[in-house]
Structure formats: structure tokens, C-alpha cells
Amino acid sequence: MEFSNLIFYVFSVVLLASGVMVITSRNPVHAVLFLVLAFCTAGAIWMLMHAEFLAIAIIVVYVGAVMVLFLFVVMLLDINIDRLREGFWRYLPLGLLVAVLVVFQMAVVLRGDYFQLESLAPPTMPAANASNTQELARELFTHYAYPFELASMILLVAMVAAVMLTLRRRENSKFNNPADQIRVKRADRVRIVSMPTERDLPAAPAEAADVPPAEPK
């Protein structure tokens, strides 16, 4: 067995173990950290497969941006695990049915003959100085241009829907209007008030009981 194959199997075992720990971990912070480990391991596997662009993209985009945001949100919300696990066994049959459907769809897509993927041009061996980023862009924007545009539209609709679902007007919330802040003038901020000066009050007389008598010499 070559050393590269051994490294591939080691990274694959780590990836599968971290994926299982993401699902079975009771602490959400630990689940996010295991997901970060899974992404880093997937990037290492892609690096072994000479897919440098995908490896760098998953490290920079997912680990460096998305997972940091997930970890910040999870630590900020203080999620109640017991409340999230309520009804787990009740929805388990439905979850297993959805999992079986997803696995079936992946198997159908990977077959290739169902969608007649063999009608496409056969893959050619890249040259020694070829760039996999350039080849990926050529395949993405030629043969898979319509699926790429469809995926982008679905993501855009999901972003707009998430914003509209969380956009709620509250009566007691305070917010700043940038237009009013720009149109502000000096008279709106500063008001000069003329007030009379303070009068000199007479000094309060000292009480005789409080002042001790002078001793004779």
C-alpha cells in the first residue's frame, strides 16, 4: 500500500468519525467543532485528489467564515438541549424515511445512465500544467450552466425568505433613522436657554446651643 493511500484511509476514517460525532454530540459547541474537523479533513482529502481549489475554498469559506458564525450563534443563544430533543422518537420514522429517499436519489444520480450522462463528451486527461480551477470553471459554466443558475436562484430565494421571516416590527424597539441623522441641524441638537443668575443667600446664623462658651483666662 502506498503512503498516499494510507493517508487517504486515515483521513476518511477521521471524516466519518467526526460526522458521526456531529450528530450524536449532546453539546452544540462540541458538534460545531466536530463539524469544523470534518470540513478540514474533507479539504485534506481533496488536496490528496489534486483538487486544490476545492480544498482552499472549503477551508476559507466554510471553516473560516460560516463555521465561525455558527459557533458564535450557538454560544450566544445558549440552546436548551433537553427541549430540542423533545419528540425525537416521535419523528424518528419520518426522519428515516427522508434519509432513505435521499440515499436513493444519490444512488440514482451516481448511476449516470438514468440521466444519460454518458452522452456528454468523455473526460480527457488534463495536461501536466493544467489548472483544475480553470477546468472546473469551464465545466461549471458550459455543461452545468443551467443547474448552476437554478441553484443560485434557490439560494437567493432562501436568503430573501429568511430575511422576511425574521423581519418583524416591534412597537417598543428603538432604532435610528439614517436619513434623519443626515438632515440634522445645529438648532435640533443645541438649545440655548436664558436663566436668571443665582442670588446671594445670607449666611445661616450659628445656633448658640451649638457654640461652646469661651473660657476665662
Short summary:
With 217 residues, this protein is mainly α. It has helices spanning 3-24, 28-48, 52-77, 81-84, 92-111, 132-140, 145-166, 178-182, 186-189.
Number of helices: 9
| Element-level helix/strand string | HHHHHHHHH
Structural class: mainly alpha
CATH architecture name of the domain at 1-81: Up-down Bundle
Q: Could you give me the name of the CATH homologous superfamily of the domain at 1-81?
A: NADH-ubiquinone/plastoquinone oxidoreductase chain 6, subunit NuoJ
**What radius of gyration results from the CA coordinates?**
34 Å
Q: What are the low-pLDDT stretches, counting only 5+ consecutive residues below 50?
A: none
CATH C-level label of the domain at 1-81: Mainly Alpha
CATH topology of the domain at 1-81: Four Helix Bundle (Hemerythrin (Met), subunit A)
Total beta strand runs: 0
Q: Biggest β-sheet: count, sense, barrel?
A: none
Morphology? elongated
> How far do the termini sit from each other?
117 Å
